[in-house]
Amino acid sequence: MIYTTNAIEALNSKLRRAVRTRGHFPGDEAAMKLLLLVLNRAVEGWKRPPREWCEAKTQFAILFGDRFTV
User: Positive or negative, the Cα torsion across 20, 23, 24, 29?
Assistant: First the structure.
């Protein structure tokens, strides 16, 4: 069973809005880049990042190399 919070729902809403506005993508990499940009912008507004954010940042650093700093 998965429990969600308002913070998670708000983040999901931002991601869905960005994807819906764009409509379609030339490839999977383009979609991942857009989601990364949305997440980076969302982080700036957070007072306290979620507990798992450090793990997610590590994965993004592996996927995107020098474009994403930990």
Answer: negative
Query: Residues, the chain, total?
Result: 70
57 contacts: CB under 8 Å, gap ≥ 6: 68, 70
Q: How does pLDDT run across 30-60, given as a tens digit for each residue? A: 999 999 999 989 888 777 767 778 888 888 8
For residue 58, give Cα distances in angstroms to 2, 23, 37, 70.
23, 29, 16, 6
- 62 alpha carbon, distance to own chain's centre: 15
Dist CA 67 CA 62 (whole Å)? 10
Q: Tell me if the pTM is above 0.85.
A: no
The gap between the terminal CA atoms of the chain, to the nearest Å, is: 30
